[in-house]
Amino acid sequence: MAKVYENKMKVRDYECDSQGVVNNAIYLHYFEATRHELMEECGLRLRDLTEANIIPVVRNVNISYRNSLRGSEEFVCTATAEREGLRYFFKQQIIRVPDNTLCATAVIEVVCLIDGKVAKPEMFDKVFVDYITWRK
Asked: ω before 98 within 30° of 0 (cis)?
């Protein structure tokens, strides 16, 4: 069973729209920030990867919005990953604290470019081993 990575965050007021709720596009930032924190937790820094011409690229995003977040609310953004062929599917959730309300879910497909070509991301398999399940 894969571990679930958790990243605790807080809504900043400038992320809210005129109705006082988090703008839909901001959720992409929360999901991406969590994936980057997961990478760093596993010993990878995006800056180091790009310098080595290894580029993880988002290929597809599917977000389901459930409940709105509002200014100053705290939440946890989670991440696990599934691997199928050359693709990773990050399954993510945003859960409001303290009432544990599910606010959004996402499946974010990522591929890895090495020297400009889609390639097998074996190095990611090794560092993400605790967070990955394999699709058949």
From this structure: yes
pLDDT tens string for the chain (136 positions)?
789 999 999 999 999 999 999 999 999 999 999 999 999 999 999 999 999 999 999 999 999 999 999 999 999 999 999 999 999 999 999 999 999 999 999 999 999 999 999 998 788 889 999 999 887 6
From the list 13, 17, 48, 115, the catalytic residue is 17
Active site residue 17: yes
Domains, the chain: 5-130 (3.10.129.10)
User: b/e for 60-89, b at 16 or more Cβ within 10 A?
Assistant: eeebeeeebbeeebebbbbbbbbbeeebbb
